[in-house]
């Protein structure tokens, strides 16, 4: 694994990466929306065929960018799980100075801008898990079902995680738009949607979603602390909950999803690892873009 300061660029996809990812985001929004039969569906099918190729080329470029992080990837289950767990704190984007700053120094306007970007790039963890579990082996499938049930508030609508985030967004009057979102945040959502909707990347999805559970608590804790400092009350529950709940989610994901797959399907270890690294790289690009907007170019505030 490269050192923590190894560059982890999210490669621009064209002369205008913002336009590229806005286009991809709008396509994902359209194709995932449940609708009834309509005129013009054949035009959308033709667009889908084109965009699936565009999306695939984008993901393949990211796979190439992730390769240096997989140079010493173990091929045995114990070694792989240990490698995966070591991404916490050492993978791309880990321990970014943005988050201590959000906890300790950001004002409300800065926190609102950060959260608006996060909400805009949110792909819906519950839906991603539901899509990723299709035809998976029984033991991983059961853990994905347990994880999904937690996302659904264990059957209580008030406990559903997605609406908790919406409640925070409503409380802070966040109004995210595709055009008002930095392109790396859109790219992050596009990566996760590509993984969970494309079966050749199904194991990438499990690695990516697993590394979210592994690494989210540290970031969520800092955001929750910042919101508390700024006087946000119960509406900060989404971040406070994920600062603790995801610790257990990560443990069970590693033991019930990653380990059994590595034991029974060693051929998917690299896909699991690639998915994790690619998700972290996309997150790292977001944090860099956020810092540049909030602090100005070149200000890393390493002491934050």
Would you give an account of this structure?
It is a single chain. The chain is mainly α and 304 residues long. It has helices at residues 17-32, 41-66, 77-85, 98-104, 108-121, 125-132, 138-151, 161-171, 183-197, 202-229, 237-264, 269-295. It is globular and about 50 Å long. 38% of the residues are buried. Residues 3-10 have low confidence and may be disordered.
By secondary-structure content and strand pairing, the structural class works out as: mainly alpha
Distance between the termini: 26 Å
Number of helices: 12
**Overall pLDDT level:** 93
Count of extended strands: 0
Helix content: 55-70%
Low-confidence stretches: 3-10
Secondary-structure element series: HHHHHHHHHHHH
Gyration radius, rounded: 19 Å
Tell me the strand percentage band: under 5%
Mass-distribution shape: globular
Main sheet record: none
Features:
disordered N terminus; single chain; mainly alpha; 0% strand; 304 residues
Short description:
With 304 residues, the chain is mainly α.
Topology summary:
Layout: H1 17-32, H2 41-66, H3 77-85, H4 98-104, H5 108-121, H6 125-132, H7 138-151, H8 161-171, H9 183-197, H10 202-229, H11 237-264, H12 269-295
Helix pairs in contact: 1-9, 2-12, 3-11, 4-10, 5-9, 6-7, 6-9, 6-10, 7-11, 9-10, 9-12, 10-11, 10-12
């Amino acid at each position: 694994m490269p050192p923590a300061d190894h560059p982890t660029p999210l490669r621009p996809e064209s002369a205008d990466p913002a336009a590229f990812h806005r286009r991809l985001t709008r396509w994902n929004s359209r194709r995932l929306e449940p609708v009834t039969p309509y005129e013009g569906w054949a035009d959308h099918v033709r667009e889908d065929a084109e965009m699936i190729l565009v999306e695939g080329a984008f993901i393949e470029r990211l796979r190439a960018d992730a390769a240096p992080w997989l140079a010493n990837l173990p091929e045995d289950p114990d070694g792989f799980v240990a490698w995966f767990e070591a991404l916490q704190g050492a993978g791309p984007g880990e321990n970014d100075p943005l988050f201590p700053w959000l906890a300790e120094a950001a004002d409300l306007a800065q926190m609102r801008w950060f959260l608006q970007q996060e909400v805009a790039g949110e792909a819906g963890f519950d839906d991603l898990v539901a899509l990723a579990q299709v035809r998976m082996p029984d033991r991983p499938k059961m853990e994905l079902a347990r994880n999904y049930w937690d996302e659904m508030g264990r059957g209580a609508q008030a406990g559903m995680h997605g609406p908790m985030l919406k409640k925070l967004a409503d409380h802070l009057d966040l109004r995210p738009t595709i055009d008002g979102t930095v392109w790396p945040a859109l790219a992050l959502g596009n990566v996760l949607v590509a993984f969970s909707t494309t079966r050749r990347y199904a194991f990438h999805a499990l690695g990516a979603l697993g590394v979210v559970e592994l690494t989210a608590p540290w970031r969520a804790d800092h955001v929750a602390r910042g919101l508390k400092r700024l006087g946000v009350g119960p509406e900060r529950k989404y971040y406070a909950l994920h600062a603790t709940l995801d610790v257990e989610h990560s443990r069970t994901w590693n033991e019930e999803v990653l380990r059994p797959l590595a034991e029974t399907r060693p051929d998917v270890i690299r896909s699991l690892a690639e998915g994790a690294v690619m998700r972290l790289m996309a997150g790292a690009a977001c944090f860099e873009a956020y810092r540049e907007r909030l602090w100005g170019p070149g200000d890393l505030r390493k002491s934050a």
